[in-house]
Design a protein that fits this description.
Length: about 475
């Protein structure tokens, strides 16, 4: 939904206000819509409409999770906001059935989410949240926002009051420091993979292209460029810091790291242990889908059928030390092989940075809550098992986070497969009841010597004033 802010947003307190409308808060809004008795909610997003990684909706690219990892199904399979119900409404259920697709295309997931966002009540696009603070006199959070016109210019200011807040502002493209000046300079063809499709034609016309990054995005960009550039004159490099272009861990027991059981186990570990674990687990979420690797090898092999090798260079274990311009429009990359200890230079006409994403900083938005906020030894926000920021007991409301808790909840934080479960966990905490009963066990693996079952409603949650009317 878009348009002006309803007067009710300003006149009465909400039970829950969401900041950001990406897949995770959209999941929360969809499940909140089904809470018996209803919840008074509002979700604010500065963009004018829902878009999910539009620059990476490459033809044929699929999700890395099954279609059951939609917004709601793993918490409420009967929800009207499920992917299957979306197909039914579009009269596509039988074609999907015969297609036998377990992993749907990324563009189809984006279309499904937009279908939900255009029909779900309580979503306010074109609203930029500026600050969140606690009003002790009213016992409510104040959420200040700016209403934006279609061009993104400020149109009006507003304030909403709410008992609870959930932050789902997502991540932002990460550009390595050595390449940041070039990426920010006009006219220099250095861009993040998040903007790939917008510049695809320019990249196809470039004399030489370099892709940096060994994850799924880097693989998909490399494959798309390889398929589209002339045989024998591909002129493309693919570089990565990792020791190999490695497949993502996708074994059945490996996938159990993306279960609520593992999330609870990870949260129970000491902070120092958690900090060591996350970097070591990169192949659980930063590797490449095996089908994509196979497609790349098949395309490279196909180009050898008539003799010769494609003009494509794939080199892992390489870091970019520095970079600069050459003749105004070309780029010179200063490289170092991390195992050999050797250095080299590569001149290229365009660079695509498939260097991942980082959590958006929340400090500016939460400056008003800083006196109440508890932090860990590294200054990061402390987050409890139910996704709440740990605040001073004087704050009787809760601030929940989505996809900002990898340091406390592990590699599953950005995973779409845990979206519905996390949303249900948050709604159970908000209501002080269990509108969405959750399974006690979700994995065959027992990750610690001490078994930790899913908790019921903790005592502190039972003390919350029930919000369901």
């Amino acid at each position: 939904m878009t348009g002006s802010t309803p007067k009710d947003d300003l006149d009465r307190p909400h039970d829950l206000v969401g900041v950001g409308i990406g897949p995770f808060n959209l999941s929360l809004a969809a499940l909140a819509d089904g809470v018996p008795g209803g919840l008074a909610t509002a979700f604010y997003e500065q963009r004018q409409a829902f878009h999910w990684h539009p620059g990476l909706l490459i033809e044929g690219a699929t999700l890395q999770v099954p279609f059951l990892a939609d917004l709601v199904t793993l918490a409420d399979p009967a929800s009207p906001w499920s992917f299957l119900n979306y197909l039914k409404g579009r009269e596509r259920l039988f074609p999907f059935y015969f297609a036998e697709r377990f992993h749907i295309r990324r563009a189809e997931y984006d279309a499904y989410c937009r279908w939900v966002s255009e029909r779900l009540p309580g979503l306010r696009f074109g609203h930029q949240v500026d600050s969140v603070r606690w009003n002790p006199g009213r016992g409510l959070f104040e959420v200040d926002f700016t209403q934006l016109d279609p061009d993104g210019e400020a149109e009006a200011l507003g304030r909403a009051h709410t008992r609870h807040v959930v932050l789902g502002v997502g991540t932002e493209p990460y550009v390595p420091e050595s390449l940041r000046p070039l990426a920010e300079a006009p006219g220099v063809p250095v861009l993040h993979a998040a903007d790939y499709l917008a510049h695809r034609e320019t990249l196809l016309a470039a004399g030489h292209v370099t892709v940096i990054g060994s994850g799924q995005s880097g693989a998909e960009v490399f494959l798309d460029l390889l398929r589209s550039r002339p045989e024998g004159a591909e002129r493309i490099h693919w570089l990565a810091r990792t020791e190999a272009f490695a497949p993502m861990e996708y074994s059945k027991l490996g996938l159990e790291h993306f279960t609520p059981d593992y999330t609870r186990y990870f949260h129970s570990l000491p902070e120092s242990v958690r900090g060591e674990l996350v970097p070591r687990q990169w192949q659980l979420h930063k590797g490449i889908d095996a089908d994509t690797i196979a497609a790349i090898h098949e395309e490279l092999y196909r180009r050898t059928l008539h003799g010769g090798w494609p003009d494509a260079v794939l080199t892992p274990g390489v870091g970019v030390r520095t970079a600069g311009r050459v003749a105004t429009t070309r780029v010179e990359l200063h490289l170092e092989h991390l195992q050999q200890g050797t250095r080299s230079r590569l001149t290229t006409d365009a660079v695509v940075l498939a260097t991942g994403y980082r959590e958006r900083p929340l400090d500016g938005m939460l400056a008003g809550l800083d006196p109440y906020l508890r932090r860990d030894s590294q200054g990061r926000a402390a987050i409890d098992e139910r996704y709440r920021l740990v605040l001073d007991p004087a704050v009787t409301g809760s601030v929940f986070v989505q996809n900002a808790e990898r340091h406390t909840h592990g590699v599953g934080a950005p995973d779409l497969g845990l979206a519905a479960w996390r949303s249900a966990t948050i709604l159970n905490a908000v209501t002080g009841k269990e509108p969405y009963p959750l399974p006690r066990r979700t994995a065959f693996t027992r990750f610690g010597l001490e078994e930790r079952e899913a908790p019921g409603v903790p005592a502190q949650d039972r003390k919350l004033t029930p919000l369901v009317r």
